[in-house]
From TrEMBL, chains A, B, C, D:
<keyword id="KW-0274">FAD</keyword>
<comment type="similarity">
    <text>Belongs to the chorismate synthase family.</text>
</comment>
<feature type="binding site">
    <location>
        <begin position="125"/>
        <end position="127"/>
    </location>
    <ligand>
        <name>FMN</name>
    </ligand>
</feature>
<dbReference type="GO" id="GO:0008652">
    <property type="term" value="P:amino acid biosynthetic process"/>
</dbReference>
<comment type="function">
    <text>This reaction introduces a second double bond into the aromatic ring system.</text>
</comment>
<dbReference type="InterPro" id="IPR020541">
    <property type="entry name" value="Chorismate_synthase_CS"/>
</dbReference>
<feature type="binding site">
    <location>
        <begin position="300"/>
        <end position="304"/>
    </location>
    <ligand>
        <name>FMN</name>
    </ligand>
</feature>
<comment type="subunit">
    <text>Homotetramer.</text>
</comment>
<feature type="binding site">
    <location>
        <position position="48"/>
    </location>
    <ligand>
        <name>NADP(+)</name>
    </ligand>
</feature>
<feature type="binding site">
    <location>
        <position position="285"/>
    </location>
    <ligand>
        <name>FMN</name>
    </ligand>
</feature>
<comment type="pathway">
    <text>Metabolic intermediate biosynthesis; chorismate biosynthesis; chorismate from D-erythrose 4-phosphate and phosphoenolpyruvate: step 7/7.</text>
</comment>
<keyword id="KW-0285">Flavoprotein</keyword>
<keyword id="KW-0057">Aromatic amino acid biosynthesis</keyword>
<dbReference type="GO" id="GO:0004107">
    <property type="term" value="F:chorismate synthase activity"/>
</dbReference>
<keyword id="KW-0456">Lyase</keyword>
<dbReference type="GO" id="GO:0010181">
    <property type="term" value="F:FMN binding"/>
</dbReference>
<keyword id="KW-0288">FMN</keyword>
């Protein structure tokens, strides 16, 4: 079996293979009356598009999206939105040599074990190409968020590439869109470019860490106990190819903290409670606090590398695998817009769930609004 | 809204509050004909039970489980299994002082913001007491796994408490059940006991890291793309109270690796492919490889501490919170059996999904079984 | 596998067997802040309760409900509500003779074929006793409806028992609660009592038709295409034991109509569009029109009868079955409150879904509110 | 919100509007390794295709299906199958006159009330054109059934058109494919052609009753209590446009029967239990008995008719509606292949659910296989 859908009310089903005729997303549960056209979606797809600089795969895909349903005269109708992206630049012959063997670290072997057959062209369904469909769906979510919670702002960026970390003291959000790494640190962008050139020259690849921050999220989003906001975000990010870990706020480092250190103390701001720190990453008990929602996820290095690695063939013979073809030396780079898209989809879904409960998108009870107890 | 159910085919809904009359789990989709009685479940509940040593809360709950449905003459019938645990040792007065204020780092405030009211007794639904229901459901999953995949073995243990890590060179699985920390390192158990005594004396608490390993998992489990085995595990673990991060295999450290380092090279063993390393944590492309499935998750320190922290009241007045009552100084300790239970539930669910696809619980295609290509 | 849950946002999972320790409903997704106590639920359970007159089974069950979670100080908290009803008057020995054979027309045989074993006591999970849990859940739904759409009124009644139909010209809603048949026709009540006495004396049983009408339902409820209001109602009613058919509005008779006859013509009332007829049963395109929602469902005669019927034993030997024990000669009677309960649950679920879309419970566009085109 | 997905494991999401660029079905959860190509699907689409004779709409749609994903080298891969059908023969100007008014008996008004806007071209999403996507999905289900349960045979046919019923004594399955009404009675086909010509000439339309029978269904399919086989079939059929009632076996007539009449007596056949009658329609307790599964559903007359009917405009002014455009005078005719498709999808879904439980597709316990008790 497979489950290619996520979301409770805003439900996205992605479909399509790397080298099949097309891929896309079926978006069901989108509220009606929201302005939407292909150009709005294309903007976001263009950010993820391969081949835009020397640091990503040289496959040339326009990733042109076509809206096949659910929009009438420029507005969503409340019916399913079908988003299709035709594949254009397939070079399936590049993959001939992996038909009968398995790239170490790649889903080749498990798809074969699970399904008994696989579409080997470009990794088939397990290709990162699937994430284009998520970005398209995320673009729809963003347009809906604009109408329901216009103050929400979602920003993703790289914070680590292999051993290289950003310097948080140099953090400059304006830099993110100015470099091919989506890194908020101009110096890092320069250093990483050199480092990645070397990685590529070595026939190697490298891992990455992405951070996605959502500001302006109203307090009260989240659906305890098993669709908590952090649970949903963990699932959303872990479902992206090559992700091996997800953390919220202090994250894995929370294991090292004491309760005194971890307690985000609360004071009263002019417009509600204000927290003195954000170890919680904007989520307590699975419900948003109103602070920035902060998620990080780790992307493993691309498994398709030019360096030979030991493997076996389908018939069990030992072999060495060298992957030709056009690959991202750091697939994490293009994961930035994907992480943003997943954040947009999850926030919208939770916003709709919350609105089902309360009729509104904000908190039910305002602190400070009650009479003194 | 709330969603208190997880699982696709083996579906668990937990219910109940910390200080309400009872709590429990409704387990639907359990295969019929499996031997099950209360004693089998009690064994696992007893591991998680509070008050067993000085390192956990002194609340005295027998956590005695009652099977209300779904079992006839000692066997499951295929109908829903209702597991109920009566609360016995409530001391709700301990919580009087947090009725109108919010513990920093606790779900008090967000439940109030989301629902407009909350059951303040013992944290209500957001209490770690909810995890007793998960352990009970996990015990059912274990009994089913015994019949469907008896070779599966699930082991959880602590690998970190605050700044203290286990020494992997001293790893001894036999130690796990011999100390109150479920730690596979006798020396660590001794050191941690001293450290936790001090933490408790300081009116403080501390975080922890848990590792859960499942061996014997057949290759082929997982339901790409959005119910991948790692996605499901990430959601399952993140849904546990106080968890702030989840990682699989190399996890967050994968961001630091190169492709050459990360590729788990494959060779042919006597009974199928064998991997020379397990950076993947037993999962590639969301599907199990047959290696050990390795998950780690970070638990933040208990937010109910005796040290005063700044907060606000419902009416917005500044205040200081000191939590009396009986609390775990390291709630991570009791999360070990909970992590194991979630692993059991998720593996069973995926096993059933896989059996729906194939009629069997093992891989569809065996490597080495094909004629040479 | 089994699926014991219905609903998208207001989700009800029923559990329990006829002669097990208890049965109940786990209600998840109930909005917070709604007044709820056991007495409110008991009122509705008492209507369905067996043994209240000579026309229903003489099993004496108080059907006393206990709220185990989800309610604090008389209000729902937004967390799962566990409703438990202890079984009290089991006489399992009555069923000894069907342990190894199968009642014709009963689920005995299919449960055995599906699960390989069954709880034979009182039909186990397939007993109409399961419907007590639905009535309890429906009572919760009614309380929520009272706050969200107080104008909604749900009324169920019998319109047919065997060959006996009500006379619609004598329809008097006030009669419904005055007779044991929930029949809106005093004369029918009298005639049917005599007829059913004879049926019972003959060791026979008889079928029934129930009609459930909801008035005051706002236009716009329904979630096309596969969770349409009529689809949901059809599933809800068909899921009740012994139901063999469901129809909306003109129903099966729509097959006989012409388009001219079937078109419910529309005129403008003082407060919106008004329909001159209601062939649609209040639903067009799966969405409520604002007219009365009208559902009918047929209940087959009880299969546990005193007249011998040919059957086989588990080992395949021919036999004759006569069911002793206490049975409803017309199980349709007690299905009236069950049908009402299902209507309440489905309407609430759709109302919440609609509110997720729009933030409100009424139609998005009012006819007559637009400027003339 | 909208829900355009049905199925638990074999999940079908349909999308698309009558006059949009395309429509289709996203089929997730299809087992891998099943032979599938466009021609196999086209066969079934061609049966439903409009314009094949004078009794259906004259819209000329080739309904040519394109497989965009999920199939590799002629076999399903286990990943989502995207089926797209381009719309070709739109004549949206035909609908200009209903932009601002509402056809009585049509979803025009409720879509407007629910969503505040609608795609008026050809009924948009509420058009019967959506059912082409179901037929495509059903064709996939049939191919899978062929491999899992090749003995299953699904046959749909009309049994009533307006006041005209088939004569069951003349029932001849071979006739079904020989006439435009899919009617198993040659005489009826002739009479109905004349009757429908008259209806069309009168600018009127007419309702219909469809029966769908599945033979060869193994005993044991069905997932009590809320995903029972009959529940699923009721929902599936009621979700089809214009359906107003659904019944199983004796159906609504069960209300008239006594228990003695309704009990399908059981005897031992050479290969298992055999029933002397089939009042149950092949389903007891929501689980298949192994007998023919028999479903009937009523289709209301097309609401787009040439006879003027009273209605209102969006601004509330009284008006009369006459629908021009090309419409089926009896939309029930083309519902026959749709009902078959839904039956195929539901049976496959239940077969997969059953296989998850048991590893096989047949009953768990065979009657007569046990030692004598």
């Amino acid at each position: 079996m497979s489950f290619n859908t996520f979301g409770h009310l805003f439900r996205v089903t992605t479909w399509g293979e790397s080298h099949g005729p097309a891929l896309g997303a079926t978006v069901d549960g989108c509220p009606p009356g929201v302005a939407l056209d292909e150009a709005m979606i294309q903007t976001w797809l263009d950010r993820r598009k391969p081949g835009q600089n020397r640091h990503t795969t040289q496959r040339r895909e326009p990733d042109a999206v076509e809206i096949l349903s659910g929009v009438y005269e420029g507005r969503t109708t409340g019916t399913p939105i079908q988003l299709m992206i035709r594949n254009v630049d397939q070079r399936s012959k590049d993959y001939g040599n992996i038909l009968d063997t398995f790239r170490p670290g790649h889903a080749d072997i498990t798809y074969f074990q699970k399904y008994g057959l696989r579409d080997p062209r470009g990794g088939g369904r397990s290709s990162a190409r699937e994430t284009a469909a998520r970005v398209a769906a995320g673009a729809v979510a963003r347009e809906v968020l604009k109408t329901l919670a216009p103050q929400v702002k979602i920003t993703g960026y790289m914070v680590q590439m292999g051993p290289h970390h950003i310097d948080r003291t140099r953090f400059d959000a304006a830099e993110i869109d100015r470099n091919p790494f989506w890194v908020p640190d101009a110096q890092a962008a320069e250093d990483w470019a050199r480092a990645l050139d070397q990685i590529r020259k070595d026939g190697n690849s490298v891992g990455a860490m992405i951070e996605v921050v959502a500001s302006g999220v109203p307090a009260g989003l989240g659906a305890p106990i098993y669709a908590k906001l952090d649970t949903e975000l963990a699932a959303a990010m872990m479902s992206i190819n090559a992700v091996k870990g997800v953390e919220i706020g202090a994250g894995m480092a929370a294991a090292s903290l004491t309760g005194v250190e971890n307690a985000d103390e609360i004071e009263m701001g002019t417009d509600g409670p204000r927290y003195r720190s954000n170890k919680a990453g904007g989520i307590l008990g699975g419900i948003s606090t109103g602070q920035d929602v902060v998620v990080r996820f780790a992307i493993k290095p691309t498994s398709s590398i030019h360096t030979p690695r030991a493997s076996v063939t389908r018939s069990g013979a030992p072999t060495e695998v060298v992957t030709k073809g056009r690959h991202d030396p750091c697939v994490g780079i293009r994961a930035v817009p994907v992480g943003e898209a997943m954040m947009a989809c999850i926030l919208l879904d939770q916003l709709l769930l919350h609105r089902a409960q309360t009729g509104a998108t904000g908190p039910v009870a305002e602190i400070g609004a009650c009479a003194p107890e």
